[in-house]
Amino acid sequence: MKKFTFIFAFVALACGFAFSQATFVVATPTANGTSANRLPNGTSGHAYFRGASLVRTTELTNMPVSTTLSSVGFTTSTGATSAVTGSITIYMENTGDVTFNKGTTWSGVTPGMTIVYTGTMSVPASATTVDLPLTTPFIYTGGGIYVAYEWQSAGPYSTGAAVWSSNTDLVSGCISGPSATAFPATCVTSNFRPCMRFGFPNTLTNDVSVDYINTMGDVALVLGAPTVPLSAIVRNNSNVALNNIPVTANMTGANTFANSQTITTLASGATTTVNFGAGWMPLTQGGSTITVSVPADQNNGNNSMNFKNMATCNTGGFAQDPANYTQSVGFNTASGILSTLVQLPVAATVNGCNIAISSNTASVGNIVYGVMLDMAGNILTASTNSLNIAIGDLNTVTSFTFATPQAVTAGQTWYVGMAQTANASLGYFPFGAYISGYLNSAYYTNAITGGTLALLTTNLGQFGIQANFAGICGPLGVASVKSSDNNLTVYPNPANSSLFVKLGSVSGKAVVEVYNAIGQVVVSAKEISDITTEINVSNLAKGVYILKVTNGKEVSNTKIVIER
Predict the structure, then answer these.
(1) Residue 541 burial (CB count, 10 A)
(2) pTM recorded for the entire structure
(3) What is the DSSP string of 493-553?
(4) Given this model, what pLDDT does residue 267 score?
């Protein structure tokens, strides 16, 4: 976990794209849920188990047509109380179907399918992956894949069930049936499809991918601090080690940034985090696009990635902005709070939050509200406004204003999020998120009344949670030449050896600092007032710098130029 403007934690996606030396593993569909009932869970009630599901064409874009699959597997998000061994038979079939069309009667499921594995499998006692080498290789011809499986175990059984990573995006995309005594002849349908892992040989000798960009989605100018250092996860998808890989980051739009780094060496199948210097200082409100890229290679479809960023006056958050929150997450019929951890390098006052409401129609008519928590999960304040979700609120971002604004100190840990009230008669999922292979924020759940925080260990997506801060942006108004009519005077600009700074109509005192283009402080904080103050810049190299002035309530940033 890294501490910058906000705390970030890369969280691996349970179902995504993996790689191990000479074997690719495509993990799909993307996990947005979990289930203990769609695969054998190790309990005596699952002594016999049958199930089948459909993986659609759109979920297999990372798998080349005509690939010979060599393994199939699954992922547990929570292990059984104890490992349980049994025998399993797995069937597969290429298909053009986009919905599950095999029915619920087992006699109608397996005809036309190929047995690709028959042997033993253990239901694990931990969160892990289970990959089984195919006893009969299977050629993927494009389209989708049906996967069916029969499991039988004579025990000893587990007292606690294993929970498997699942996906809920396809209505009735899975059928399953457990039994304690015999194989069921008929299964029931479910939206929860197990996440499959398909392995196949890797023949690429030069394939590097940009897998993730880590930065802030929303940067609050009112904080007057550089954003977190920009970084990216880069992977060597080749079957050999690669050396001297150039990686470039560029930001275009309202704010700009550019930096290049070289990866000295990267082993086959390995990933590394590339850091692009210190954080950048936001100067202008508005949107920007960050692009991280590597050179052309044998697979140019994964050589770059974009991240959308918005510099605002008062709002800070982790998710891309703009974003389409396609995932719906919640506590079903129960109540609870989902929040994210925040830590600032400067003191601030938090006066509210913005939360993305999902497109889940069952959420309509239910009540949610914003909250702020301390390290122990105690509720510091809740919003004065609650939201009785209406149709027009779906797939939008709602602002909540806290009843009592909360002052936080530099380095203080706190949490901001949303409370979901219970609905025993109709479960709903009001939190909006989008799919992401890694997360740049950790998420926590606890009771609606507060209390112990539980880390959300399953990647359910990047949630739309933002904090709103008190303050006003830009009223100090920097002038590039001396003028007694302005709130702040800075001259000369460009400068050579000295800058002169003076407050105008703004009474009181303020503090001035100078940053370089990558957010490093190059002139330490100095107090200024309505008396002209000289700032020595003779030791600064020629270039563009950022002058930050704050009087405790307001902040102003402006570019200054040093000439030699």
Answers:
(1) 9
(2) 0.70
(3) SSBSSEEEEEE-SS-S-EEEEEE-TTS-EEEEEEEE-SS-EEEE-TTSPSEEEEEEEE-SS
(4) 93
Using CA atoms, how far apart are residues 345 and 528, in angstroms rounded to an integer?
22
Q: DSSP 3-state assignment of 382?
A: strand
Angstrom distances, CA of residue 466 to CA of 74, 307, 551, 557: 34, 17, 25, 23
**Domains of the chain (ranges plus CATH)?**
23-201 (2.60.120), 205-313 (2.60.40.10), 330-469 (2.60.120), 474-562 (2.60.40.3080)
> Could you tell me if residue 201 is left (phi over 0), alpha (psi between -120 and 50 degrees) or otherwise beta?
beta
- For 200, left (φ over 0), alpha (ψ -120 to 50), or beta? beta
Rg, C-alpha atoms of the chain: 27
Q: Which residues of the chain have pLDDT under 70?
A: 1-22, 473-487, 504-508, 517-519, 552-554
**Are 477 and 487 a contacting pair, CB within 8 Å?**
yes
**For 205-215, b where at least 16 C-beta lie within 10 A, e where not — what string?**
eebbbbbbbbb
State how far the Cα of 7 lies from the Cα of 344, in Å rounded to an integer: 8
Q: Distance between CA 505 and CA 514 in Å, rounded?
A: 22
Q: Residue 492 burial (CB < 10 Å; 0-12/13-18/19+)?
A: middle
- Note the pLDDT of residue 505: 58
- In angstroms, the CA 146 to CA 109 distance is 9
Place of tokens 């705390």: 7
- Distance, CA of 244 to CA of 262 (rounded, Å): 6
* Cα dihedral: 431, 436, 441, 446 (round 10): 40
Alpha-carbon dihedral sign for residues 306, 312, 317, 323:
negative
Distance CA 142, CA 65 (A): 5
Is 402 in contact with 450 (CB distance < 8 Å)? no
Distance between CA atoms of residues 275 and 228, nearest Å = 11
Q: Encoding tokens for residue 443? A: 């998420």
Q: How far is CA 341 from CA 351, 374, 510, in A?
A: 16, 9, 31
Q: What pLDDT shows up at residue 22? A: 64
Question: What's the pLDDT at 398?
Answer: 94
Residue of 197, 207, 186, 173 whose CA lies nearest to 95: 173
CB 131 within 8 A of CB 62: no
Sign of the dihedral through C-alpha 13, 19, 23, 24? positive
Nearest CA among 140, 242, 148 for reference residue 198: 140
